[in-house]
Write a structure and sequence with these properties.
By secondary structure, this protein is mostly beta strands. Helix content is about 0%, strand content about 45%. Strands 2, 4, 5, 6, 9, 10 and 11 form a seven-stranded mixed beta sheet that branches. A four-stranded antiparallel beta sheet has the order 1-3-8-7, with no helix packed on it. A hairpin with a 5-residue loop joins strand 5 and strand 6. About 30% of the residues are buried.
């Protein structure tokens, strides 16, 4: 059973930066190459939104239009940890951010759909406010 743990959320001013982390628990076998891994976010009263997806099969990432050019998906194969580096943050980026993983290894055309992923972390709050 894969267990994912997010960290790194917090309060940041508009225009600031944060780095979120998603790590597998010590009791899980987790190799980045074997999964499609995604970041989602959910703001109060809104549906869960796909932010970015990393294909373990190719090492490539894709992004939602709303974060393109501001967010970067990063990986550390030694630590089996993925990161979401968020720059130029806006108040509309405020949400609970989740990482998710699925053993299909490739981000498909529907990578932004939450039902595509089997494993989920507990989420970390990001608040962008002055």
């Amino acid at each position: 059973q894969l267990q994912l743990v997010e960290s790194g959320g917090g309060l940041v001013q508009p225009g600031g930066s944060l780095r979120l982390s998603c790590a597998a628990s010590e009791f899980s076998e987790f190799t980045l190459d074997y999964y499609a891994i995604a970041w989602f976010r959910q703001a109060p009263g809104k549906e869960r939104e796909g932010v970015s997806c990393f294909s373990g099969s190719s090492g490539r990432s894709t992004y939602a239009d709303s974060v393109w050019g501001r967010f970067t998906f990063s990986t550390d194969n030694v630590k089996n940890t993925v990161y979401l580096i968020m720059n130029s943050l806006k108040p509309e980026d405020t949400a609970v951010y989740y990482c998710a993983a699925d053993p299909r290894r490739t981000c498909t055309y529907s990578w932004y759909a939450p039902e595509e992923y089997v494993y989920w972390g507990q989420g970390t709050q990001v608040t962008v406010s002055s």
